[in-house]
Amino acid sequence: MFEVLEPVKAGIDFENTLTPTDDFNIIDYLYFYNGGGVAVGDINGDGLPDLFFSGNQVKNKLYLNKGNLEFEDITDKAGVAGNSSWNTGSIMGDVNGDGLLDIYVCAVVGLKNLQGHNELYINNGDNTFTERSVEFGLDFDTYSSSAAFLDYDLDGDLDIYLLNHAVHTPESFGHARLRNVRSYESGDRLLRNDGEKFVDVSEEAGIYGGITGYGLGIAISDFNLDGYPDIYVGNDFHEDDYFYLNNGDGTFKEISKYVFSHTSKFSMGCDVSDINHDGYPDLITLDMLAEDEVVQKRSEGDESINTLRMRTGGYGYNYQFPRNMLHINRGNNQFMETALLSGVAATDWSWSALFSDFDQDGNQDLFISNGIPKRPNDLDYIKFVSSEQIVSKMEATKLVDQKALALMPSGYAQNYVFKGSGGLKFENMSARWLPQEKTCSTATAFADLDNDGDLDIIVNNVDGKPGIYINQTNTSANYLKVKLKYNQSNPFAFGSRVYSYNNGIMQVKEMYTARGFQSSSEPVVHFGVDNVTVIDSVIVMWPNGDRQKLTAINSNQTLTISYNAQPSSIVVQNKEEPGRIFEQVDLNNIGITYEHKEDNYTDFDRLKLLPYQQSDRGPATAIGDINNDGLTDIHFGGSKHMPGQFFIQTESGFLKTSIINILKDSIKEDNQSIMADFTMDGKADLYIGTGGADFYNRSAPLLDSYYKSSESGFILTEIEGYFENVSCLQPFDFDGDGDLDLFVGAQSVSNDFGATPKSYLLVNNNGQLAPHQAEFFENLGMVTDAVWDDYNGDGQVDLIVVGEWMSPVFLKNNRGKFERDKVFLEGLHGLWQAIAPLDVDSDGDTDYVLGNWGLNSRFKATNGHPMRMYYGDFDDNGKSETIVAIARDGKYYPLDGLDMLASQLPVLRKKFTSYESFAGKTIDQIFTKDQLNKATVYEVHELASGFLRNNNGVFDFVQFVDNLQVAPILSLMRYDFDLDGREEILVGGNYFGVQPFHGRFGSFGGAIIKSESDIRLSQSIGVNFFNQSVRHFNIVSFKNEKFLIVTINNGKCQVYKILGKK
Amino acid sequence: MKRFIVFISILGIVFSCGKKEEVAFDPGDVDPGHLHHTMKKITDIIVHDIFSPPVASRIYAYSSIAAYEAAVPGNPNFVSLAGQLHGLEELPKPDSAKQYCFELASVHALAVVGKALIFSEAEMQAFHDQTLAAFKNSGMPKAMYENSIAYGSEVAKHILEWSGKDNYKQTRTFEKYTVPLHDPGKWKPTPPAYMEGIEPSWNKIRTFVIDSASQFVPKPPTPFSSDVKSQFYKEALEVYEAVKSTNSEYEEIANFWDCNPFKMNVRGHVMFATKKISPGGHWINITNLSCKLANHDFFETAEAYALVSVALADGFIVCWDEKYRSKLVRPETFINQFIDEDWLPLLQTPPFPEHTSGHSVISTAAADVLTTLFGDNFHFVDSTELEFGLPARTFSSFKQASDEAAISRLYGGIHYRPAIDEGVKQGHQVGDWVLRHVRTRKEHLAWKE
Question: Most buried residue, A1017, B163, B389, B390, by most Cβ within 10 Å?
Answer without folding.
Answer: B163
